[in-house]
UniProtKB/TrEMBL annotation:
Coiled coil: none annotated. Belongs to the TonB-dependent receptor family. Keywords: Cell outer membrane, Membrane, Receptor, Signal, Transmembrane, Transmembrane beta strand, Transport. It comes from Zobellia amurskyensis. It is a multi-pass membrane protein. This is TonB-dependent receptor. Gene3D superfamilies: Carboxypeptidase-like, regulatory domain, TonB-dependent receptor, beta-barrel domain, TonB-dependent receptor, plug domain. Transmembrane segments: none annotated. InterPro entries: Beta-barrel_TonB_sf (IPR036942), CarboxyPept-like_regulatory (IPR008969), Plug_dom (IPR012910), Plug_dom_sf (IPR037066), TonB-dep_OMP_SusC/RagA (IPR023996), TonB-dep_OMP_SusC/RagA_CS (IPR023997), TonB-dep_rcpt-like (IPR039426). Residues 120-227 form the TonB-dependent receptor plug domain.
Length: 1003
C-alpha cells in the first residue's frame, strides 16, 4: 500500500510538472504585436520607440506610425517619443495595440533659458523677459531684432536708419558706458558673441532676455549690458516642410516741404539773400517767371524711389528614430527707397541632434550667411551731411543733366549745397559691403546618473567683412578707391557640470559649475587709392596717383569660472546665488581677474499649482548683483604712438613720434551694480499675467578716455573714473481677451521707463564736450556730457527769434541788425552755448495683438517712444544761410523777416546748432498690420496647409517731428559712442512705409 502511494505521488508530480511546463510555455509564447502610434491630433508619429520592458527587444514606428514587435502576453511595452509622455501597456491577449501619445505634462510648464541651463518659469528669481516665436510668427520680419521691439519690457530697440540691412540699436535697461560699447551680449545656442542682424527670424524658437545683475552675473564681464539668449528651432515628429514667400513695396511716407516745390519763391528769396550780403541778385525777373511756370528739379524726389523686395524662407524639420533635424534657408533681396541702394542676404542653417544612448546625446548646429549692402549710406560719410541732407539742400534751379546729356556736377550758379550733384554721387558710386559669417556649435551632454551630468559647448565663428568702394567724390572730383577687410575669428569652449537632487519631496537643490575659455582675433587690412587715372571702377585702383596702406592685428582672451546654486523649497521659495571669476588679457598682471557675485530670491505667496480663485499665482522677487566690463581696446592700457613731422627750427619738417594715448597700468574693470525687485501675478485661471520690476543700476569706475592737458603732452589716457546711474520700471501685461472654439484674441503690452543720470565725472569737471560736430564748417560740437544730467545732452545756442526794428540799438551793440537771428547771450555779450535738449527716450512701449477667427488670423503691433528730443540738423541745413548750404531752402522762408513783416524767421545767416532745431521726438507707430487666411488639408492631403496673407509695416506714424522719422539718427563712426549722441538727425536714410503680400505652405 505504501509502495503504491509512492508510485501514485510520483506520477502526480510528473503530471503536474508536465502541465505546469505546458502552461508556462503557453504563458510565454511569443506573438507578433502590431499597432500604430499617433499624437494628440491623430497625426502618425514616425520614429517612436517601442521597447519590451526589461529587455533589449525593441523597434521603432515607421513613417506612417506603424510598428511590429514580438512580445508575450505578460510583457509590458514601453512607448516613448521626445516631447511626449511615455506610456506603459501590458500586452495580455492583444495582438494589435494602437497608442495615442500626449504631450509631456512637465513640458507644458514654461521653461526659461537662464544661461548654461534652464529653469521653470515659476522658479525664476531674476528679471528675465521671454519672447517666443508665436508672438511674431504672423509678422513678416526680415530681422530678428525687430521681433524684440516693444515685446520685452526693459528692452529698447531703435533703427539707426531705414536703409536695407541698416543697423538697429538694442539697449537693455538704459546705457551704462560713456565711451565704451553698450550692446548686449547675444548668445545663440550657447555660443557667445552672436549677431542678431544676421539671423533668419524663421529659425528662432525663443529669445530670453536677462536684464538684472542677478541674471546676467553668470556671464560676468560679458553680461554688463544685459544678455539675449537665442534658442533656435529643433525638429520633432513627422517630417515637415514649410515655405514662406513674401514680396514688399516700399515708399517714403512723405517728402519734406522745401522751396524745391516752388522754385520761383526760392529764386526770389535767393536774390534777397544776395542783396543782404552786398552781392548782385542771382536771377533775372524773366528767369524767375520761367521757374514759376516750369518749376525746377526737386533733388529730394529724384534720389527717392519705390523699392521692391522679396523674401523666401524654407525649412524642413522632424525626427527619424533618435535623430532630430531642423534645416532652413533664407534669401532676401531688398531695393532701397534711395536710388542705387539695396541689400541681399543668403543664410543657411542646420541643427542636428542625436540621442546616442539613454545617457548620451550630441548636437551640431551650423549657420552660415552672406549679406551684401549696396551703396551703404555710411560709405559716403556725412562730414558735410548725408546724401539726403545734400539732396534737400541742392540748387533746384540746376537740372541733373546739361544740354549735352552730361551731369551738372555742381550748381551752375554756385548756390545751394556746394557739394557734388547727389544724383551723380549715387548713380556713379559703387560701394559694396560684404559680410560673410559662419558659426558652428558642437554640444554634447552625458548623464552619469539621474542627478549628475556634464555638457560641453564648443563654438567657432568666422566673420569676414569686405568693404570696397569706388566713389566719384574725391579730390577735384577725380574718383577714389578704398578697400578694407576685417577678419574676426572667435573660439569658445564651455565645460558645464550640473548636479540636481530632490530631498524629501521638498528640498530641490541644483548646482551648476562652468569653466569657459574664449579667444578673439581681429585682422584688418586697408588700402586707399587716391585720384584714379582710369575712372572705370574699383578694380582699377592700381592706376591711382597716390596710395596709403594700413594693417592691424588684435587678439584678446577671456578665461572664466562660474558656480551657480539654486534652491527651491516646497515649490514656493526659490534662491539663486552666482559667482563668476573672469580673467581678461586686456588688463595688466594683478588687474586681470575680477569676481562678480549675485544673489536673488523669489517667494510664491500663491502657487500656480495650488492657487484658486481669480488670482492663481502671486510671486515676489528681489535680487542684487555685480557685473564687469572690459570695454577698452586690446592694448588700451599701453601708450600708443603716431608718427608725424615737426619743424623744430621753422624750416623743413623732421620725422618723429608723438603720443596719442598714455599708458595706465592700473586700469581695471568697469563695474555695474544692480538691485532689482519684482512682482509676478497670474490671474483668471491663467488667462492673464502681469509683472512689474523696479531697478537701480549704478555703473562705477567707468572706462573713460580722458583728455590730457597740452602742458602734459596732450593726447588721451584711459582711466577708471566717473559714474552713470539708471533708475527704472519694467511692466509687462498679457491677457487672452477672448478665448473660445472659434475666436481667440491674445494681447500683450510691455512698457519701460528709465531715468539716466551722470552722477560723477572726473577731476571736478561739470561737463565734457562730445565728438559730434555739425556740418557746414562751423566746427561746433552738438553733444555734451553733463554732470547731474542724462547721457544724450544736446548742445547749442538758445534761439530767441529775430532782432526787431525796435531793438536796432541793442542789436548793433553785438554786431547785429534787425532781421538777424537773436540768441541768448552771457554777461560778456557772447552767445551762450549749453544744453538745449536730450535725445535719450525715457519711456518706450509696445502693444502686440494676435486675433484668430476660424481660419483667419490678424496681427497688429503698435509701439511708441516718449520723453526725448531730436536735433534736426537737416532742417538747419534746409533752412540754410551758412556753411555748405548757403541758400534758403525751407518753405518757412516765405514768411521771413522784413521791415513790414517782422516775423521770427531770420532773413540772414544763422547758427546750425541752436534750439530752433530742437523738436520733440515722441511718437506712436503702427509697426505691423497683417491679415491672413489658412486653407487646411489642401488637395485632400492631411496636414498640408496654405496661408495667404497681406498687410503693411510702418503704416502710420503719430508725431510732431518735422523730419522723416524721429526714431532715426545719423552719425559718423569717428564721432564717439552713439549713446552719448542720440537723437541727432543729419539726414538719416528715411524709414519706408511697406506693403506686403505673402504665401506660406506647410506639408
Amino acid at each position: 500500500m505504501k509502495q503504491h502511494f509512492k508510485q501514485l505521488l510520483r506520477k502526480s508530480c510528473l503530471l503536474a510538472l508536465f502541465l505546469t511546463t505546458v502552461g508556462m510555455q503557453g504563458l510565454y509564447a511569443q506573438q507578433a504585436v502590431t499597432g500604430n502610434v499617433t499624437d494628440g491630433d491623430g497625426v502618425p508619429v514616425p520614429g517612436a520607440n517601442i521597447l519590451v520592458k526589461g529587455s533589449t527587444n525593441g523597434t521603432q514606428s515607421d513613417f506612417d506610425g506603424n510598428y511590429t514587435i514580438e512580445a508575450s502576453s505578460e510583457d509590458i511595452l514601453v512607448i516613448s517619443y521626445i516631447g511626449y509622455a511615455t506610456k506603459n501597456i501590458i500586452v495580455g491577449d492583444q495582438t494589435s495595440i494602437n497608442v495615442q501619445l500626449t504631450e509631456d505634462a512637465s513640458q507644458l510648464e514654461e521653461v526659461v533659458v537662464i544661461g548654461y541651463g534652464t529653469t521653470k518659469k515659476k522658479d525664476v528669481t531674476g528679471a528675465v523677459s521671454r519672447v517666443t516665436a508665436e508672438s511674431f510668427e504672423n509678422q513678416p520680419l526680415t530681422r530678428v531684432d525687430e521681433a524684440l521691439q516693444g515685446r520685452a519690457a526693459g528692452v529698447t530697440v531703435a533703427k539707426a536708419n531705414g536703409a536695407p540691412g541698416g543697423g538697429i540699436k538694442v539697449r537693455i535697461r538704459g546705457v551704462n558706458s560713456i565711451t565704451g560699447n553698450n550692446d548686449p551680449l547675444v548668445v545663440i545656442d550657447g555660443v557667445l558673441g552672436g549677431d542678431l542682424s544676421t539671423l533668419n527670424p524663421n529659425d528662432i524658437a525663443s529669445m530670453d532676455v536677462l536684464k538684472d545683475a542677478s541674471a546676467t552675473a553668470i556671464y560676468g564681464v560679458r553680461g554688463s549690458n544685459g544678455v539675449i539668449l537665442v534658442t533656435t528651432k529643433k525638429g520633432s515628429g513627422k517630417g515637415k516642410i514649410n515655405v514662406d514667400f513674401f514680396t514688399s513695396i516700399s515708399q517714403v511716407s512723405g517728402l519734406l516741404p522745401t522751396l524745391a516745390e516752388n522754385v520761383g519763391d526760392f529764386a526770389r528769396i535767393e536774390n534777397i539773400r544776395k542783396l543782404s550780403i552786398g552781392q548782385n541778385p542771382t536771377f533775372t525777373d524773366a528767369e524767375i517767371a520761367g521757374f514759376d511756370t516750369n518749376g525746377g528739379t526737386n533733388y529730394q524726389d529724384e534720389v527717392l524711389r519705390t523699392g521692391f523686395s522679396k523674401n523666401l524662407q524654407i525649412s524642413a524639420s522632424g525626427s527619424e528614430g533618435k535623430i532630430r533635424y531642423f534645416l532652413s534657408g533664407n534669401y532676401r533681396d531688398e531695393e532701397g527707397i534711395v536710388i542705387n541702394t539695396g541689400y541681399q542676404q543668403l543664410s543657411l542653417r542646420s541643427n542636428i541632434d542625436a540621442q546616442i544612448t539613454d545617457r548620451f546625446k550630441v548636437g551640431l548646429n551650423i549657420f552660415g550667411s552672406r549679406g551684401e549692402k549696396k551703396n551703404n549710406f555710411e560709405s559716403f560719410g556725412n562730414g558735410q551731411g548725408s546724401i539726403m541732407y545734400k539732396a534737400n539742400t541742392w540748387d533746384p534751379t540746376t537740372p541733373i543733366y546739361d544740354s549735352n546729356g552730361l551731369y551738372n556736377r555742381r550748381s551752375s550758379r554756385g548756390i545751394g549745397s556746394l557739394n557734388l550733384n547727389p544724383v551723380l554721387t549715387l548713380n556713379e558710386t559703387d560701394a559694396s559691403d560684404v559680410d560673410e559669417r559662419i558659426s558652428t556649435a558642437l554640444n554634447a551632454t552625458y548623464k552619469f546618473n539621474d542627478n549628475f551630468s556634464y555638457s560641453m559647448v564648443a563654438g567657432a565663428q568666422i566673420n569676414n567683412l569686405n568693404v570696397q568702394r569706388f566713389a566719384v567724390e574725391g579730390s577735384d572730383d577725380i574718383p577714389d578707391a578704398n578697400y578694407r577687410n576685417n577678419k574676426n575669428t572667435i573660439y569658445q569652449l564651455s565645460n558645464i557640470f550640473s548636479w540636481q537632487k530632490l530631498f524629501n519631496d521638498k528640498h530641490n537643490i541644483k548646482l551648476t559649475g562652468v569653466q569657459e575659455y574664449s579667444n578673439t582675433k581681429i585682422q584688418t587690412n586697408t588700402y586707399n587709392a587716391d585720384n584714379l587715372l582710369l575712372a572705370d571702377g574699383f578694380y582699377f585702383g592700381e592706376t591711382a596717383s597716390g596710395f596709403s596702406i594700413s594693417n592691424d592685428f588684435d587678439e584678446r582672451e577671456l578665461s572664466s569660472f562660474m558656480l551657480r546654486g539654486e534652491y527651491v523649497l516646497d515649490d514656493n521659495l526659490s534662491i539663486t546665488a552666482t559667482a563668476r571669476y573672469d580673467g581678461s588679457s586686456v588688463f595688466r598682471p594683478g588687474k586681470k581677474w575680477g569676481l562678480f557675485p549675485s544673489i536673488a530670491a523669489g517667494y510664491n505667496i500663491i502657487n500656480s499649482s495650488e492657487g484658486s480663485g481669480f488670482i492663481n499665482n502671486l510671486k515676489l522677487r528681489a535680487g542684487w548683483g555685480q557685473v564687469g566690463n572690459q570695454g577698452i581696446n586690446t592694448y588700451g592700457t599701453f601708450a600708443n604712438l603716431d608718427n608725424n613731422g615737426y619743424a623744430y627750427s621753422g624750416g623743413a619738417q623732421s620725422p618723429g613720434l608723438f603720443i596719442l594715448n598714455f599708458a595706465n597700468e592700473d586700469l581695471t574693470w568697469e563695474t555695474t551694480t544692480q538691485t532689482n525687485v519684482g512682482i509676478d501675478l497670474g490671474f483668471n485661471e491663467g488667462r492673464g499675467n502681469f509683472s512689474i520690476d523696479g531697478f537701480k543700476k549704478l555703473t562705477s569706475d567707468l572706462l573713460l578716455n580722458v583728455p590730457v592737458s597740452g602742458t602734459n603732452g596732450g593726447g588721451t589716457i584711459n582711466r577708471n573714473v566717473g559714474e552713470v546711474e539708471n533708475l527704472g520700471i519694467d511692466i509687462a501685461l498679457g491677457y487672452d481677451i477672448i478665448q473660445n472654439d472659434n475666436l481667440n484674441w491674445n494681447a500683450n503690452f510691455a512698457v519701460s521707463y528709465v531715468k539716466n543720470e551722470v552722477t560723477q565725472l572726473f577731476d571736478g569737471l561739470q561737463q565734457i564736450d562730445g565728438l559730434y560736430q555739425a556740418p557746414g564748417g562751423q566746427a561746433r560740437v552738438v553733444n555734451i556730457i553733463q554732470l547731474g544730467e542724462p547721457l544724450g545732452q544736446l548742445n547749442g545756442a538758445t534761439f530767441l527769434g529775430t532782432w526787431k526794428s525796435s531793438e536796432a540799438s541793442a542789436a548793433a551793440a553785438v554786431g547785429k541788425k534787425p532781421g538777424d537771428a537773436k540768441y541768448l547771450r552771457d554777461e560778456n555779450g557772447e552767445i551762450a552755448f549749453g544744453a538745449i535738449g536730450n535725445g535719450t527716450p525715457t519711456l518706450t512701449w509696445g502693444f502686440n495683438n494676435t486675433i484668430n477667427y476660424k481660419n483667419w488670423d490678424i496681427n497688429f503691433f503698435l509701439n511708441g517712444s516718449h520723453g526725448f528730443d531730436i536735433y534736426n540738423i537737416m532742417r538747419a541745413g534746409i533752412t540754410g544761410g551758412a556753411g555748405d548750404s548757403r541758400s534758403f531752402m525751407s518753405a518757412d522762408q516765405i514768411n521771413q523777416w522784413t521791415p513790414t513783416n517782422e516775423t521770427d524767421t531770420p532773413a540772414t545767416v544763422q547758427l546750425f546748432n541752436s534750439s530752433r532745431y530742437i523738436e520733440k521726438g515722441d511718437f506712436v507707430r503702427l509697426s505691423n498690420l497683417t491679415i491672413g487666411y489658412t486653407f487646411t488639408d489642401i488637395a485632400g492631403t492631411t496636414g498640408t496647409t496654405l496661408k495667404l496673407y497681406g498687410g503693411g509695416q510702418n503704416l502710420f506714424l503719430i508725431t510732431d517731428y518735422s523730419g522723416y522719422d524721429p526714431e532715426l539718427s545719423s552719425r559718423r563712426s569717428d564721432q564717439g559712442n552713439a549713446d552719448v549722441a542720440p537723437g541727432i538727425d543729419v539726414g538719416a536714410y528715411p524709414n519706408p512705409r511697406t506693403y506686403t503680400l505673402g504665401i506660406k505652405v506647410g506639408f
